[in-house]
């Protein structure tokens, strides 16, 4: 949340969208790369190695923050002395904020559903080894980061609204590809890793197109409440996404149908955000605290 509020303090518009895209790209590759890195460390140095690595990482990052991270809050920022419940309530009543944060939650829910179902689909049914599974996960994680880099270049040429439209289209195409694979290919091919990972690769490209622009649109009005708005947006993205993913996995359908449902939901929410982005008028600079 510190990073997101810092971006809001320092950047505006498309510059902010590109920064949010990088941040969300890094955030979303963690579930993909962490199992691979943890597996390699545990296999090479024992089960304690991942914990020593995390402790060392936290120490290094903490020192870097103390040394290099400046205060980004503008000089005229309104001070908040208590838990800003009134500001949270006011922000939650803004349709614009909800439209864009729900788009992020839908994309996050799709990724979390994919991550949760992947071991069953790829290892139990697809018979991939632990190493093969880690490679597939890692490759998809790097694909998300590459997509975020490409989106940052596209934003400069086409703008944020078009990127939201592309994100919706990509997630819809991922769902169609997943369902088509289930309908076209014979039963003996349904356990192939490709019939799961290729549609996922298409959909996570949609996530890369969605999260940066949607986050910048959601936080743009709240210059004086960057931290409050960032915290609320992050909560909705993670809690909403994980809750939707749990509901999808609880459906009495197979794994691919559950993931397809999440892809469709993400596409619909991104499309609503795109429609909202085309009707932007004006920018709020502050919310009353009482």
Automatic annotation (TrEMBL):
Principal cellular location given in the protein's record: membrane
Residue stretches making up the Major facilitator superfamily (MFS) profile domain: 1-278
Keyword vocabulary terms for this entry: Cell membrane, Membrane, Transmembrane, Transmembrane helix, Transport
Positions of transmembrane segments: 21-45, 51-69, 97-117, 129-151, 163-187, 193-219, 231-251, 257-274
Alphabetized GO MF terms: transmembrane transporter activity
Compartments, as annotated in UniProt: Membrane
Pfam family, one: MFS_1
Topology in the lipid bilayer: Multi-pass membrane protein
One Gene Ontology term, aspect cellular component: membrane
Domain of life: Bacteria
The name this protein goes by in its record: Multidrug resistance protein MdtL
Originating gene: mdtL_1
